[in-house]
Amino acid sequence: MQIYLPIAEVSVNAFLLLGLGGLVGVLSGMFGVGGGFLMTPLLFFIGIPPAVAVATEANQIVASSFSGVLAHFKRRTVDLRMGTVLLVGGLTGAALGVVIFNYLKSLGQVDLLVKLCYVVFLGIIGSLMFVESLNAIRKSRKNTGPIKRKKHNWIHGLPFKMRFRVSGLYISVIPPVIVGVFVGILSAIMGVGGGFIMVPAMIYLLGMPTKVVVGTSLFQIIFVTAFTTLLHATTNYTVDMALAVLLLVGGVIGAQFGAVIGAKLKAEQLRILLALMVIAVCLKLALDLLFMPSELYSLGAAGGH
User: Fold this and answer.
1) What mean pLDDT is predicted for residues 3-31?
2) Membrane spanning segments where (predicted)?
3) pTM flag (> 0.85)
């Protein structure tokens, strides 16, 4: 069943979009990521223009993350205080990111930038997570005791400390705010919730327990991506509602299944699965950029060359 998307100006199979939404919803519930880092490239692959994919995907992330958060609230694995601190940084970063996005759009270079950002970030994060997860699995096999977290002394020495009871932490608010700003910028430029950066940062940088990280990450993602969507819709007019609704329906259903699956897998297994998916998408995008020069010429033409 083909459906015409007015803003994207392409026809796409409606069931394909529902399926993609469902798949990303499952990932959202399992890993605490908005799923945008996979969905946005998948939208590129089926012919949606990058500027539209970025703005519309931010919209879909709101719903799938909201659905996932509800499941985590029931289990009491959301640190609201930490989520709020991350959110302050996230909203600031999102506003900054939309300004950068609009500037690049005016130069006609936004499509290329978005794809290059994906290749770089997904490559780095996927590799780091994969190596770390393999080490964690090895350690857990050798030693049946709990894996000890390294204490980052420089973080513990920073001022403006706050107690985060759900996470069992007493740390400075500066690192979470910086993480939030960074994720907000990425959310605006790449159409991602930023969970693929947020989750590792919360575990390794802030030292939060993995079970609390997923729900807290989703809580923050909801507000940052909603704000990003609003800014894109009012300044760029690149939010395609027909596309968003189909992705939403699939995403909300998928997130509930994902939360159930995620609860049954070990943290190390979850992270290694996520790492493999990130690397796979990165490779596909890199190959597209290398082997499709016609795309680059059309981008150049859009810039008025």
Assistant:
1) 78
2) 12-39, 85-104, 116-137, 158-179, 185-206, 213-235, 241-261, 273-292
3) no
